[in-house]
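Trying the structure run again after the queue cleared.
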Amino acid sequence: MLFRNCAGGIVFKGDQVFILQNDKHEWVLPKGVIREGSAKEVALRRVFEEGGIQAEIIAPAGETSYEFYSYSRQQPVCNRITWFIMETHQDEYKINTEEGFIDGGFYPVQEAVEKITYSQDKSLVRISFRKMKNLSSVGKLA
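Done. Tokens:
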């Protein structure tokens, strides 16, 4: 089995989160394989490359992994993803169709959770939103 380390971002703008629809019609979060740079650098770069969004990392969000069979590589692959909670204040985004994305944008968290294809990504968004809200309220009290 081929193991790949990846990194991605859960990008919030207020009470909305950024999600993408890929060419398989799956709703996903921006992420990519770590080939060079740190997990944080790759996560920020993928958010920018896939969605045109400049974001800042607020906190770590955790890790997920999934396995699939790669027909091009003729072997099973396990992607291990390190996630980061991110925040942006920009309204604009640009879906990177050259990367195979067909739709996307900022959606209210509950609507995004309903759209997201994979259950672990749904949980990740819910938990990250609660964590971000807690961090924001602590920051406002300081």
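The helical segments are 39-51, 109-115, 119-141. Worth checking whether this holds up in the mutant runs.
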